[in-house]
Write a structure and sequence with these properties.
single chain; P-loop_NTPase; ABC transporter ATP-binding protein; iron; OB fold (Dihydrolipoamide Acetyltransferase, E2P); alpha+beta; five-stranded antiparallel β-sheet; binds adenosine-5'-triphosphate; Rossmann fold
């Protein structure tokens, strides 16, 4: 419908008190022989948007469900504002946790009006109070005028905003969102995502958002927690994870990479593309040199490593080159700005930007 033009209302009512949600040494297993989560310690600070990022099956949803009280951990504790809400001695049921949930499928009731959908969870209030709170939440997401309509008249993006209003209406201390935008087409995603972030900021709720999309995590998260096989690999800001990845897995999650095997000599890794600093590594140590696809300067002629273009694909703003370089067993890929090379050119010279090169201990990681 019209969410491209319409901005959520700027209302000041309906804010929550931001809370701190902490996972302490969380372990979880669905079966005795297979652990889903291993010793996860992680804190979402008050008012923060924390993204849980990781490939499919890494345990993101399970961690979210443990926070909500829909799943029980086998080890560790969950604390809300330093108070244990799930642990060896306590287990608060979901409705007593002051935690709101938004799922990818929106899960609106088709036979209830928008207002009644938002009012649904406000059972502790009188009918009139619940109506008032639901209207505040609908105003917050800019959809108050649809209060009497039914969900089918709304677009996917608007339905998602209703789901957000429903989760915010009880003024939860923490909002948990599981792949909240994956049901939206890519055209809508950016808008709804930006609107959701604005609403989260206004409502001051602490939010944990699950996604498997690194760019989405970078757009939304104040910090990102990256999970792999149920373990926390790295937690930090987008810049920290992108610029200083803890390992090759983290680097590969944020950038497409060329990987070259190399050995260290005199504090640098020797490759056919040049020597790259490998501080702290011993002579003879095998390493993997990772070069971002965007890390190349190309020219038709000049200083640099000689490369031959094997294929060249137009991708709009950029072009993707497949390159052969002497001494490299595998082809290299490079993303260059469109128009940087004239059409038809085959032999070029290549320079690597040092800031796009990362050197890791040699250990081929699988996702
Ligand atoms: N009810 C269940 N019973 C048994 N195993 C399960 C159950 N739910 C999830 N799993 C397994 O636990 C692991 C973690 O699943 P989880 O859904 O938490 O991962 P995820 O990172 O959220 O993945 P996705 O992005 O695909 O949703 C997976 O290997 C999954 O197959």
């Amino acid at each position: 419908m019209s969410e491209m033009h319409e901005k959520p209302a700027r209302v000041t009512a309906g804010v929550t008190f931001a809370a701190r949600l902490a996972f302490e040494g969380i372990g979880h297993r669905f079966t005795p022989h297979q652990a889903t989560l291993h010793d996860v310690t992680l804190t979402a600070e008050p008012g923060e948007v924390l993204c849980l990022l990781g490939p499919s099956g890494s345990g993101k949803t399970t961690l979210l469900r443990i926070a909500a009280g829909i799943e029980t951990q086998s080890a560790g504790r969950v604390l809300l504002n330093d108070r244990e809400i799930a642990g060896p001695s306590v287990f608060l049921p979901p409705e007593q946790r002051s935690i709101g949930l938004v799922f990818q499928d929106f899960a609106l009731f088709p036979h209830l009006t928008i207002l009644d959908n938002v009012r649904f969870g406000l059972t502790a209030l009188s009918r009139e109070e619940a109506r008032g709170e639901a209207m505040i939440a609908l105003e917050r997401v800019g959809l108050a005028r649809y209060a009497g309509a039914y969900p089918h008249v709304l677009s996917g993006g608007e339905q998602q905003r209703v789901a957000l209003a429903r989760a915010l209406a009880p003024r939860p201390a923490v909002l948990l969102m599981d792949e909240p935008f994956s049901g939206l087409d890519s055209r809508l995603k950016d808008t709804v995502r930006a609107e959701t972030l604005a609403i989260l900021r206004q409502s001051r709720a602490t939010a944990i958002v699950v996604t498997h999309d690194a760019e989405e995590a970078m757009r939304l998260g104040d910090r990102i927690a990256l999970l792999r096989h149920g373990r926390l690999v790295q937690v930090g800001t987008a810049e920290e994870l992108y610029l200083h990845p803890a390992d090759l897995f983290v680097a590969g999650f944020f950038s497409e990479l060329n990987l070259l095997d190399a050995r260290v000599r005199g504090g640098a890794a020797d490759t056919p593309l040049g020597r790259f600093p490998a501080p702290g590594r011993n002579d003879g140590e095998p390493v993997t040199v990772a070069i971002r696809l965007s890390g190349f300067d190309v020219a038709e002629a000049g200083e640099g490593v000689a490369a031959r273009i094997l294929s060249r694909r137009f991708l709009g703003v950029v072009e993707l080159l497949d390159l052969a370089v002497e001494g490299c067993d595998e082809h290299l890929r490079a993303r260059i700005r469109r128009g940087q090379l004239p059409p038809g050119v085959r032999d070029i010279s290549l320079n690597v930007n040092r800031s796009d090169v990362l050197v890791f201990e040699r250990r081929r990681e699988s996702a």
